[in-house]
Each structure stands twice: as structure tokens, then as C-alpha cells.
Design brief:
Blueprint lengths: L4 E6 L4 E7 L4 E9 L6 E7 L3 E6 L3 H14 L6 E6 L10 E2 L2 H9 L8 H14 L5 E5 L9 H4 L5 H7 L8 H15 L7 E7 L3 E7 L2 E5 L22 H9 L3 H10 L2 H6 L5 H9 L3 H21 L8 E5 H6 L1 H9 L10 H5 L16 E4 L4 H13 L1
Parallel strand pairs: 1-6, 6-8, 9-12, 12-13
Antiparallel strand pairs: 1-2, 2-3, 3-4, 4-5, 7-8, 9-10, 10-11
Helix pairs in contact: 1-3, 10-11, 11-13
The chain binds adenosine-5'-diphosphate (ADP).
């Protein structure tokens, strides 16, 4: 019998879900419960059926009960629930079943991701009520990066801050980087153990990871997802003195500076217009200089980080683009590769226009270093890990 896994991704005011079939990688039904904790929460779904339903005043628990109802109405069954969990800290280097022990470990990490982990815990508790008889698993955004060596994960801070407080680089988007690297190996028909890869996940959040022999050896995000590349609304790397400087000059509090760096910076901050790459490319074409500057900084910093990550690999067999921007934006990919001539990249303009669809996702010319486009599928990784844990 086929095993369906319900994959849950809990945010502060939304729950993304997907009923997935791990073996075939098929999504049977996926959807979103949004505006949770307001009086007009909404459940939307598509797949074998599509539709939407007003949930009224609903929190995470009511939304999950709404999903249970929906599955029953559509006569769909599932064998387990897999949760995306943001921060596993050093305790979790792989996915695990939900148990008293693992939940205690997750709670102990909550200080590392105060915005995310408590919401994930809430989602797990609500799913327990909604699906009392089903096993549940946790799949961590950080776990894939636990193979990073010390030289890559340590900050040059007093060592006690790492030893006693766990302050180090953790990295995120691990399920996405893991998926696209495995998929690259499959498409290139090479064992992943032999490959030196860089994957660039470019969505609203952006990160790039160096993967050697299937293991993450360095990544651009750090203690939090703020470090590294320029993102939709996040600044990425800045001078760490900025907090004090803005406090002194503009009298901003720590919380105000954090809010500025997380919500008002990146593409949005530079352009003053949008965090959406599509809109910025259109604005640039229409002569908007600030949009052009935002894209230029985004691409430059991406290329610079890719170049830096090659230090962790010693060589590069393939560069993978994924995420909404990586999968869809030909100009961003082209401009990024144009900045890396010393790595030998030569873009096949036609293949780039069609996202490499006719050739395994490859967008570089034959006999030149390989650049590829691979659509990510984090839900399938979560479904597969969950299926493996319950079997
Ligand atoms: P999230 O990180 O929220 O999952 P996505 O992976 O969906 O986000 O990526 C969202 C980004 O992808 C947005 O900046 C959006 O503009 C960009 N994007 C989607 N389609 C295109 C496209 N055709 N061209 C350029 N950018 C695109």
C-alpha cells in the first residue's frame, strides 16, 4: 500500500501543508491555512481537488482540524505527519521522530530561534491533537549543515561564547540544499560522494552552500538566517558595528535595528520599491535606477559568495540555482555567472532562457563548468525522511 505523509510547515500566522507520496515524489494535495489567529482565517488547497474554506476565528489547532476534515471529505489517508522545524541546534544532525525526549531537545534550542521554534512546537502540539494516532517526525532546516567543519562554523569570538552559549554558524535551508544536490547527482549520473557542488537557494530568503561528497562543508547563513547573501527584505552581511552606530546616531533600539535588517533591507531596502525580483526586473527595464542598483548588489554579493565557497571545495563540479529566483530568473543567473569568468562558466543563452529544461537543467555550454537549474522540493524531503523513520 502507498504511504502518504502529511507535511506541515507552521509559520506564526500560517500553516503550509502537503499530502505527499514519498516514493513517487508526487504531491496529492497541498495548501495553505492563512491569517491564523484573526477572525477571518482561510484554508486553501489544490491538487486532486481545489477549493477554499473560511475558517472564521481559528488558530493553529483549528486550522489543523480543518485539514483533518478536508482529508476525510476527500477520502485521503495519511500514515504520519512530518514537520519542518527551523532550528535543531547541535542536538539534531538528522531528522527524528517526535518523542518526549526530542521535544525536550527542541525546547532547549528555542532560544536560538525565538521567532520560529516556539511556533513549530505549537504546530506539533496541535497536530498531536488533530491526529492523535499518527506518528510524527521533525525535519530540521539546520541539520544538513551539522557536517560543517569547525573552521567554517566558528565565529572569531571568545571561544566561551560557542562552548557555553552555542553561538556559532548553523546555516538554514538544509532540506532544500540536500534535495537539489542529490537531484544534481542523479541528473549528472554521478555518485554524490564524488561531487563538489555549490547550491544557491534564491527565494525570499537566500543562501548558498558548498557540498562536498554529499555533505555540507560551508554555507552563507549563520547563527540566524540574517547572515550572508542579500535577500528579499534581509540585509545579509553587514558590519557588526552597525547596531551601535545606528543606536548612537539615530537613537534606534536593538529591536528597531533588528527589524530594519530583517524586514526593511535587502532588495526592498535598496530599491525602495519591492522585495520581489520579478517586479524589480520589470522596473529596471522601465528605467528605474534604484531597482537596477538593488539587482546589481544582489547579484554581485551572490557571485562573491559563490566564489568564496569554492575555498571549502577546492574545485567545483556544478553550480545549482534553485528557489523562486534561481529557478525562474534568467537574467539573475546570467549576470551572476558573468561575474565568475575565473571559474570558467559560459552560459548557453538559449538553455538559460528555458531554464535548461531540455538538458537535465544544464544552462552552461558543453565542455564548460556545469551550471544547472533544479526546482527544489523541501516537502518531499520531509515526506521521505518521515517515511523512513516510521518504516
Ligand atoms: P519563498 O522563499 O518565500 O519560498 P520563493 O522561492 O517562491 O520564495 O521565491 C520568491 C522570489 O522568486 C521572489 O523574489 C519572486 O519575485 C521570485 N520569482 C518568482 N518567479 C520569478 C521570475 N519568473 N523571474 C524572476 N523572479 C521570480
Amino acid at each position: 500500500m502507498k504511504t502518504n505523509i502529511l507535511v506541515i510547515n507552521c509559520g506564526s500566522s500560517s500553516i503550509k501543508f502537503s499530502l505527499a507520496e514519498p516514493e513517487s515524489g508526487q504531491h496529492i494535495l497541498s495548501g495553505l491555512a492563512e491569517k491564523l489567529d484573526s477572525t477571518h482565517a482561510l484554508l486553501k488547497w489544490k491538487g486532486v481537488a481545489s477549493g477554499s474554506k473560511e475558517l472564521g476565528k481559528a488558530g493553529h489547532k483549528e486550522a489543523l482540524l480543518g485539514i483533518v476534515d478536508l482529508l476525510q471529505q476527500l477520502n485521503l489517508s495519511c500514515s504520519a505527519v512530518g514537520h519542518r522545524v527551523v532550528h535543531g541546534g547541535e542536538k539534531f544532525s538528522s531528522s527524528c521522530l517526535v518523542s518526549e525526549d526530542s521535544l525536550a531537545g527542541l525546547k532547549a534550542n528555542s532560544h536560538l530561534a525565538p521567532l520560529h521554534n516556539p511556533v513549530n512546537l505549537q504546530g506539533i502540539a496541535a497536530a498531536k491533537l488533530a491526529f492523535p494516532d499518527l506518528p510524527q517526525a521533525m525535519v530540521f532546516d539546520t541539520a544538513f549543515h551539522q557536517t560543517m567543519p569547525r573552521q567554517a562554523f566558528l565565529y572569531a569570538l571568545p571561544y566561551a561564547l560557542y562552548r557555553d552559549e552555542g553561538i556559532r554558524r548553523y546555516g538554514f535551508h538544509g532540506t532544500s540544499h540536500r534535495f537539489v544536490c542529490q537531484e544534481a547527482a542523479r541528473r549528472l549520473e554521478r555518485p554524490i560522494e564524488e561531487l563538489a557542488l555549490i547550491s544557491a537557494h534564491l527565494g525570499n530568503g537566500c543562501s548558498a552552500t558548498a557540498v562536498l561528497g554529499g555533505k555540507s562543508v560551508d554555507t552563507t547563513m549563520g547563527l540566524t538566517p540574517l547572515e550572508g547573501l542579500v535577500m528579499g527584505t534581509r540585509s545579509g552581511d553587514i558590519d557588526p558595528s552597525l547596531h551601535e552606530f545606528l543606536g548612537n546616531t539615530l537613537n534606534l533600539s536593538l529591536a528597531e535595528v533588528s527589524n530594519l535588517l530583517n524586514k526593511k533591507s535587502g532588495l526592498l531596502g535598496l530599491s525602495g520599491k519591492s522585495n520581489d525580483m520579478r517586479e524589480l526586473l520589470e522596473a529596471e527595464a522601465a528605467g528605474d535606477e534604484r531597482a537596477a542598483i538593488a539587482i546589481q548588489v544582489f547579484v554581485y554579493r551572490l557571485a562573491k559568495s559563490i566564489s568564496a565557497l569554492t575555498v571549502a571545495l577546492g574545485r567545483l563540479d556544478a553550480l545549482i540555482f534553485t528557489g523562486g529566483i534561481g529557478e525562474n530568473s534568467c537574467p539573475v543567473r546570467q549576470r551572476c555567472l558573468d561575474l565568475l569568468p575565473f571559474l570558467g562558466f559560459q552560459v548557453d543563452a538559449e538553455a538559460n532562457l528555458t531554464h535548461g529544461q531540455d538538458n537535465k537543467g544544464i544552462i552552461s555550454l558543453e565542455n564548460t563548468p556545469c551550471a544547472m537549474v533544479i526546482p527544489t522540493d523541501e516537502e518531499i524531503v520531509i515526506a521521505r525522511d518521515t517515511a523512513a523513520l516510521i518504516s
